[in-house]
Amino acid sequence: MTAAVDALEELARPEHRGNPYPFLHWLRENDPVHRTRAGFYLISNYDDVFYTMQHTGTAFTVPEQDAMAADLPPSKRDHPSITKQLAAFAAKNMPHYTRLRSVMARDMTAARVRHLRPRIEEHLDRILAGLGERLAAGEVVDLHTEVSMPLTQFVFAERVGVPAEDKTWIADTIALMMQALVTSSEEVMLAADEASDQVEEYFRERVAERRQAPRDDMISRLVKVHDSYAPDDDRLLIAILWIMWMTGYESTIAGIDRGMQSYLDHAEYRDWLDGDEPRVQSFVEETLRHDGVVLYTPIPRIALDDVDMSDTTIPAGSSVRMLLASANRDPQVFPDPDRFDPTRNTHRMLNMGYGMFHCSGAALGRAEMAITLTGLKSRFPTLTAAETPTWSDIIETRCVTRLPARLA
Fold it and tell me: Is 223 in contact with 87 (CB distance < 8 Å)?
């Protein structure tokens, strides 16, 4: 393998979807500031990734919508399902974004998560009880579709204020929109366009309802703060709702999947999930470091001036993405990085972003992972992988579409 290889092509290969880390090690050691054939840079060592995160807003900026569209094939740029996603991510540059983001952050404090925990545990118990007889009879179950998806749908609906009967079709629409980013099928693109229009109209209806009759939910709190300074322009408010669904929903499902896969793959550490909260949390943190959700950041950074990194100059105006999965296995920061080890110190890992880009739902996502893992250990201590997981075609994230398991 030479440095002339295109990292995006390599990471899309089936053999690298399940295990990209040998290639990421090679890239970090041989081409740590890699210019893809798509034109943007992928940076892979810890120090460079952390510098980029830390200096977003000074050395780097988040691009406007047109600049993000430049990273996409021309055939995708005019589809509403794509432009809505780009507009949502570009909303970070809009005035008052930080005010609405602070509403989401306050809604996900540790105290709020503790308040939600009994409801999450109750719903998970119902899910796992429904799998018990089937597993006992020798059936293979898909943990992705039967555990992480319904649990996340329930929690997200409770948190945001979406009626239970609506949560599934919205989730299906978001999945279709994510597929639109990677497909070459015009039929899929058109279906995603229609579906995204329906979801946006749904958001606008919920916003109008909360203006007339506020409730104890996040949509109501967002509307209240938004209307205090921009009551005649709902673009940012709708963008915030898109961000919540596109990032919080899918990433939480993927995080739970990553935790369950660690549970299946590292049976020698299952005693860490017997209920002692610090040990459970250590298992969760090591999962996120060892095989986290984000392969590389979906939102690019634009260099404001020439930036020198790892003996390479990134020219001003260049688009940069960060390979978080590589940074979290950099041996300069994490000794023996390929070994899963819940005893290690993970405080420097970079999965949840930095500063204004730190994930506001991180505490809730970790709680859902912990609750799911302790629930599995309690009910199904001999659960084992039944088949190799099936991986999503979306390169930026480490998402499965099937995670089959059975009792040993």
Answer: no
